[in-house]
Amino acid sequence: MLLTFSDQLIKFGMWPAAILIFCLVVLIVFRKRIDPIFDKIGPAIDRVRKAGPIELTSSPPSQQPVDVRAESPPKVFHPLDSPLLNDREEAIRREIEKLFPSDMTGRVNTLVTHLAATQLALAFESINKLIWGSQLDLLLHVNSVLNGAAVDELRVFYEKAAQRISSSSGPHRCNASSTSIA
């Protein structure tokens, strides 16, 4: 059976008509509940109409461009120029002036003593890191190996630690009597 154009139009045009009728029925039945929504949408549409087309500008026409040239060159950040360091320096200066108000030799001697103590503390921390840091790497590796680690495998960690230690501390030897560490 051949369908004519009008039959196909009715066949495929009925579902949009059915949806349109359904929407009209829903609007009529729920009109009182839907009215507040339309009351909010209406003013928003009016604001869009009043605003007109949207234009993007870089600056309002009433303002002049700002001159961004600086009189002095920008300050380059220096690692020793920090607020925390500046505060600490001022505290040290106040403390030194309190202890030695007019004795410059006493100030210098005190500062040299404190500098030496700080350098020794830094050296001790570095040595501590060398000793315990290399051991921690080794222990972490041994703990990750289930069946234990061979001495030759562990020698890599020893050699890395020995390279970190300065040559002034003398030669380093690995005297291992066993072939496996469990």
Explain what this protein looks like in three dimensions.
Strands 1-2 form a two-stranded antiparallel sheet. It is mainly α and 182 residues long. α4 packs antiparallel against α5 (151-164). The protein is 65% helix and 2% strand. It is elongated. The chain contains five helices and two strands.
Write the SSE topology.
Layout: H1 5-29, H2 31-51, H3 83-99, H4 104-144, E1 149-150, H5 151-164, E2 180-181
Antiparallel strand pairs: 1-2
Brief account:
The chain has helices at 5-29, 31-51, 83-99, 104-144, 151-164, and strands at residues 149-150, 180-181.
What are the main properties of this structure?
182 residues; elongated; mainly alpha; 5 helices
What best-fitting shape do the alpha-carbon axes yield? elongated
Taking all residues together, what is the mean pLDDT? 75
Instruction: Name the beta content range.
Output: under 5%
Number of helices: 5
Instruction: Specify the biggest β-sheet.
Output: 2 strands, antiparallel
What is the H/E string? HHHHEHE
Instruction: Kindly provide the radius of gyration, computed on alpha-carbon positions and rounded to a whole number of angstroms.
Output: 42 Å
Described by its quaternary structure, the protein is single chain
Ends distance: 89 Å
Helix content: 55-70%
Unreliable residue runs: 174-182
Q: How are the strands of the biggest sheet laid out side by side?
A: 1-2
